[in-house]
C-alpha cells in the first residue's frame, strides 16, 4: 500500500484506498504504477513483478520513489512519511534523469514503435510528453549546476552525454508527434496541417536579419503576410469546439484533440503577441524615417551660404518643411504612438525583460538625438534670418 499512499497524499481521491486494501499485491502495484504514470507524470521505472519479490532491488525502488520527491516536493515538505512506510530516498537528480532517459530511449528508438496501432502509440507518446515536461525542471537544475562553478565531478563527467541524450529524446518526441498528427485525415487533418505550419512560422525571426534601406516596406509586407496567414485562426477554433459532434472524429483520442486545442490556444496567444511586436517594429521604423528625413534636410542646409537668393531659398525651404509638415508635432505623434505600442506589448506579454531594456534604450537614444535636431532646426532658421538681415 506504500506506493498508493504516496499517490493518495499527492492527490487525494485519485486511488480508492478502501477498494484496493484487500486486492493482491500485484494488482495494487499495477494500479499504483499505472496511475502515477498517467496522472502524475511519474515514469514507470518498475514493474509489479520487480517489487513483489522477497528481496526487491532497493536502489531501483528508492530511485522510483525519489521521482515523487523531486516532482512534488511540497507534498514531502508537509507529509508524515511514516504513513507510507517509505523513507525519503537519496537518489540524485542525475540518477533520476538518467533512468528516465533510459526509459524514454527504449520507447522512442524501438523498431516496433510504429507497428503499433494509433491509440496505443498516442497513449505512449502522451505519457512520455507529460513526463518530459515534468523532468525538464530536473534537467534545467542540472544544466545550471553543470554551467556553474559548483565542483561536482560526477555531474561534469556525465553532463555532455545527458545533454546529447536529452536533445535526441526531445527531437524524437517532436518527430513522433508530427507522425501522429499527420496520420489524422479529413477536416481535422487540414486543421492540424495548418497548426504545424503556424507553430513553425512562430519560431522564425520576426524580421530579416539583414537591414535594408526600405525596412519600413519590409515591415509592412511582413505584417500583411502575418495577418493573411493567421486569418483562419478563429474559424479553426470554432471548428474544434464543435468537432466532437461529427462522427468523422470518433476514432480520434480525447487526449489528442485536447493537445490540439491547447496548441491552438497557444498559437492564438503567440500570434497576437507577434502581431503586436510587428506593430511595434512598424512604429519604430516610422519614427526612424522621420529622424532620417530631418537629418537629410539639415545636411542640405548646413552648408556655406552663397548668394542672397540662395539664403532666401534655404529660409523658404526651412519654413515650408517645418511648418507645413508640422515637423515637431509629427515627431511627438510618432513618439507617442511607439510608447502606446510598447505598453500594448507589455500588456499581452510580448516583450521579455531583455527586449524591454532594448526598447527603452532605443527610446532614450532617439529622444536625445531629436533634442539635438530641434536645436539645429531652430538654428538654421535663426541663422538664415540673421544673415539676410545683415546682408
From TrEMBL:
Domain of life: Eukaryota
Record-level GO BP terms: nuclear migration
GO molecular function, one term: actin filament binding
One Pfam family named in its UniProt record: CH
Classification via Gene3D superfamilies: 1.20.58.60, Calponin-like domain
Cellular localisation: Membrane
Domain (Calponin-homology (CH)): residue spans on this chain: 1-73
Any GO CC annotation of this UniProt entry: meiotic nuclear membrane microtubule tethering complex
Entry keyword set: Membrane, Repeat, Transmembrane, Transmembrane helix
InterPro entries recorded: CH_dom (IPR001715), CH_dom_sf (IPR036872), LINC-complex_assoc (IPR052403), Spectrin_SYNE1 (IPR057057)
PANTHER family xrefs: MUSCLE-SPECIFIC PROTEIN 300 KDA, ISOFORM G (PTHR47535), NESPRIN-1 (PTHR47535:SF1)
Name of the molecule in the record: Nesprin-1
Protein's organism: Stegodyphus mimosarum
Top-level taxonomy: Eukaryota, Metazoa, Ecdysozoa, Arthropoda, Chelicerata
Amino acid at each position: 500500500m506504500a506506493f498508493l499512499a504516496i499517490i493518495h497524499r499527492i492527490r487525494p481521491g485519485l486511488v480508492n484506498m478502501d477498494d484496493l486494501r484487500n486486492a493482491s499485491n500485484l494488482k495494487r502495484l499495477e494500479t499504483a504504477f499505472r496511475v502515477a504514470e498517467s496522472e502524475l507524470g511519474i515514469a514507470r521505472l518498475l514493474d509489479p513483478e520487480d517489487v513483489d519479490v522477497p528481496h526487491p532491488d532497493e536502489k531501483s525502488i528508492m530511485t522510483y520513489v525519489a521521482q515523487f520527491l523531486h516532482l512534488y516536493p511540497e507534498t514531502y515538505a508537509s507529509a508524515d512519511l511514516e504513513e507510507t512506510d517509505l523513507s525519503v530516498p537519496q537518489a540524485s537528480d542525475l540518477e533520476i534523469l538518467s533512468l528516465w532517459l533510459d526509459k524514454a530511449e527504449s520507447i522512442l528508438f524501438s523498431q516496433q514503435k510504429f507497428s503499433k496501432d494509433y491509440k496505443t502509440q498516442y497513449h505512449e507518446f502522451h505519457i512520455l510528453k507529460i513526463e518530459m515536461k515534468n523532468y525538464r525542471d530536473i534537467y534545467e537544475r542540472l544544466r545550471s549546476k553543470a554551467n556553474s562553478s559548483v565542483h561536482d565531478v560526477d555531474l561534469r563527467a556525465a553532463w555532455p552525454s545527458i545533454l546529447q541524450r536529452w536533445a535526441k529524446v526531445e527531437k524524437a518526441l517532436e518527430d513522433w508527434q508530427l507522425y501522429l498528427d499527420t496520420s489524422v485525415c479529413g477536416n481535422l487533418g487540414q486543421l492540424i496541417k495548418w497548426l504545424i505550419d503556424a507553430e513553425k512560422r512562430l519560431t522564425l525571426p520576426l524580421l530579416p536579419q539583414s537591414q535594408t534601406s526600405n525596412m519600413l516596406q519590409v515591415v509592412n509586407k511582413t505584417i500583411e503576410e502575418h495577418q493573411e496567414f493567421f486569418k483562419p485562426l478563429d474559424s479553426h477554433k470554432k471548428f474544434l469546439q464543435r468537432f466532437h459532434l461529427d462522427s468523422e472524429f470518433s476514432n480520434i483520442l480525447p487526449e489528442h484533440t485536447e493537445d490540439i486545442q491547447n496548441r491552438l490556444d497557444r498559437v492564438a496567444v503567440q500570434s497576437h503577441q507577434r502581431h503586436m511586436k510587428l506593430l511595434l517594429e512598424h512604429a519604430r521604423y516610422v519614427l526612424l524615417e522621420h529622424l532620417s528625413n530631418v537629418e537629410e534636410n539639415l545636411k542640405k542646409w548646413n552648408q556655406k551660404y552663397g548668394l542672397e537668393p540662395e539664403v532666401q531659398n534655404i529660409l523658404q525651404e526651412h519654413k515650408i518643411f517645418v511648418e507645413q509638415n508640422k515637423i515637431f508635432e509629427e515627431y511627438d505623434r510618432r513618439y507617442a504612438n511607439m510608447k502606446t505600442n510598447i505598453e500594448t506589448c507589455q500588456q499581452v506579454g510580448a516583450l521579455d525583460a531583455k527586449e524591454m531594456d532594448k526598447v527603452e534604450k532605443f527610446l532614450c537614444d532617439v529622444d536625445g538625438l531629436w533634442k539635438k535636431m530641434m536645436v539645429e532646426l531652430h538654428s538654421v532658421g535663426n541663422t538664415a534670418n540673421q544673415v539676410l538681415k545683415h546682408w
